[in-house]
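Fold these two proteins, one after the other.
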Amino acid sequence: MARPKTAAKRKRINLALQGGGSHGAFAWGVLDRLLESDLFEIEGVVGTSAGAMNAAVLAHGLAIGGNEGARAELRRFWHGISESTRHSPLKPSPLDRIMQPGSMQYSPVYMMFDLMTRLLSPYQLNPGNVNPLRDLLQSIVQCEDLRNCVSVKLFICATNVLSGKIRVFQNQDVSIDAVMASACLPFLFQAVEVDGEHYWDGGYMGNPPIYPLIYDCESRDVLIVQINPIRIEEVPTSAHAIMDRINTLSFNSSLMREMRAIHFVTKMIDGGYDDNGRLKRMLIHSIDAEEELRKFGASSKLNAEWDFLQSLFELGRSRADLFITAHYDKVGRESSTDLIEKFL
């Protein structure tokens, strides 16, 4: 795609990356297209769970090789995820491939796995706390690069198990443990200890949190790469569908609250009150694929088959392309997302 005619220079933006298991490959596609376009300068990126992994790999890639380095490292990471699960029995069944491609709802292995995680904790099922994602991430991301990175501000979100508080790790204190803490689903993995505290998935308290981008970045533009659908088409009636919806509501709730706060502050500024210049007008943009992603059940978030990841990647690239075409000129000037229609 050609550079928009109005582009005189790269526009500075911040990225907010949601978590959602293997659906994070959608965000990979979005990032790949944004980096390829070379239309944007990324000032800050905040991520939770899979979004935290994407954010860490992105920041590492930018630090060592600019846009093309980041694209290469992201591909290397997601291909590594697929390779690490190649021999796993947790795959879609033939019936899944016919009825709901990508999901594993009819897979006997997934059904047994799902039942076991409800009956036994990861301290019983996985006493050695084996996590292939840790080894993969450690082979790609050099935390020293992140701590010394001046090209992008990195924020990783995790939930403190004991206090219930959110913790946002920044460049100087990001570690492999911090990223793994952000992606620690408590029914799959043991709580991750960082600096004497124990953490679970950041999605419970911020998926992702926007406030670090407001307070610690100069750019007013925030592009949310949304993975978890906000709206669904019908009331869920099966046990699986009900549980899927509960999880989606939980993981979207913090983002919805922050969007309400941003809308409230925007109304105050529009009304002429800016608290002596201390209020900051934020410009909100979003890229999603609600119609496509809401068709997949929660089981699909554990599907790491390369063909499935590639389909999500291509979907992300196409949605980023649409965003550039439709909204590039609005970046730096106005929000392209209607907060009332989408979030309120």
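Now the second one:
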Amino acid sequence: MTDYTQDNDLWIALQDYQHEDRETLVMLLNLYNQHICHVISSVDETKLENYWVDYEGCRVTLDDMICGYVNHLNLHIGQIHELL
């Protein structure tokens, strides 16, 4: 079984983004992130310290996940700017 959590390049290659239409990818990124913004804005703030245990056994709070997503998105935006 392949462990996609340990091989980001494999995960990206399997999704074959390099052969996807650019406009489709931009639309996907836009709509997906609009939905994520909606979900985040709907979060009950009293639940931000709720947590789950990730694949490495670490506790991750909802607040950590939200902040982590924003940081992850900024990483990808930086990568896109480098490619342009």
